[in-house]
């Protein structure tokens, strides 16, 4: 199939919706997951595409539960469902891959819908029963929500915000390495927002905890949905105000100030961490030649 390349060039307008259009199931793009892996067509080694089907019966693959309708991508109905057999062998010409691996191989718009799909499927699976009284929940018509018919508790998809921050000091930025990072790879300070905190509070607390410094007021940069499993990364920049690096050894293996000329390996282009670092480099007229 040639569609992968041409679709990469499409506009990729996604219109979310909860209730499918009337008139029965419509053919569309099917985001079918085997655990956290997405079933894709692989017409060529580098490119992949989400299959366009009348329905999963086209592939002869059984589903765990009724599919979720997601909305339309460039007018195509999009559906998400989980495959029953975790060991299922993909049909010929298809394969199952994790979303990280598919970034850059799927058209960007399909990758974003796949991130939405995997989060909604996890929510659908994890909220079949009321968390308060254990009654089976019902879908709430017209909303992405489940309601308990006994006590009325309503559950919406969970989103867990995390902050990530690029800290500047003179002509250097602070990069840190977690214990689990690949050797030589550095990233930015990041962490989950706690109950009762503003995003700015979370930025200050994470920086104080992890690297022991104080910063000037953080400035919002941008955000990125992070479906691993239901995060959103909120990016900030901030200037160093006081203190020297003192790492929290339970979290970090290493942290230091790096100038443009001696940057170590930084996160891949998939991440908002990289967008923050690229924007900092671009402001100095430089580009970072790492993938
Ligand atoms: Zn209940």
Jot down its keywords:
single chain, 291 residues, alpha+beta, Nucleoside Triphosphate Pyrophosphohydrolase, 2 domains, seven-stranded mixed β-sheet, 5 helices, 17 strands, 18% helix, globular, disordered N terminus, binds zinc ion
Give a description of the structure.
- It is a single chain.
- Residues 1-9 have low confidence and may be disordered.
- With 291 residues, this protein is an alpha+beta fold.
- It folds into 2 domains: 3-145, Alpha-Beta Complex (Nucleoside Triphosphate Pyrophosphohydrolase), CATH 3.90.79.20; 160-282, Nucleoside Triphosphate Pyrophosphohydrolase (Alpha-Beta Complex), CATH 3.90.79.
- The protein is 18% helix and 32% strand.
- The longest helix has 19 residues, at 108-126.
- The strands form 3 sheets. Strands 1, 2, 3, 4, 5, 6 and 7 form a 7-stranded mixed beta sheet that branches. Strands 11, 12, 13, 14, 15, 16 and 17 form a 7-stranded mixed beta sheet that branches. A 3-stranded antiparallel beta sheet has the order 8-9-10, with no helix packed on it.
- The structure holds zinc ion (ZN).
């Amino acid at each position: 199939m040639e569609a992968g390349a041409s679709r990469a060039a499409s506009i990729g307008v996604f219109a979310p919706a909860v209730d499918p259009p009337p008139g029965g199931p419509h053919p569309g793009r099917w985001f079918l997951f085997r655990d956290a892996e997405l079933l894709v067509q692989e017409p060529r080694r580098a490119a992949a595409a989400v299959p366009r089907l009348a329905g999963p019966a086209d592939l002869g693959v059984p589903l765990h539960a009724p599919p979720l309708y997601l909305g339309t991508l460039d007018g195509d109905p999009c559906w998400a469902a989980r495959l029953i057999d975790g060991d299922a062998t993909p049909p010929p010409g298809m394969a199952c891959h994790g979303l990280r691996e598919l970034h850059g191989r799927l058209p960007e718009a399909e990758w974003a819908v796949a991130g939405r799909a995997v989060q909604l499927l996890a929510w659908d699976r994890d909220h079949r029963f009321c968390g308060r009284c254990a009654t089976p929940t019902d879908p709430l018509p017209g909303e992405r929500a489940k309601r308990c018919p006994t006590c009325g508790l309503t559950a919406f998809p969970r989103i867990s915000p995390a902050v990530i921050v690029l800290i500047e000091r003179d002509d250097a930025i602070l990069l840190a390495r977690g214990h689990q990072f690949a050797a030589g790879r550095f990233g930015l300070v990041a962490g989950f927002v706690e109950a009762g905190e503003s995003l700015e509070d979370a930025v200050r607390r994470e920086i104080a905890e992890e690297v022991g410094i104080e910063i000037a007021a953080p400035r919002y940069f941008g955000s990125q949905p992070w479906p691993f499993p239901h995060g959103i990364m909120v990016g900030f920049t901030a200037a160093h105000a006081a203190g020297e690096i003192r790492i929290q050894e339970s979290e970090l293996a290493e942290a230091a100030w790096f100038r443009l000329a001696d940057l170590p390996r930084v996160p891949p282009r998939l991440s908002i961490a990289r967008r923050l670092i690229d924007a900092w480099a671009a402001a100095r007229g430089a580009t970072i030649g790492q993938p």
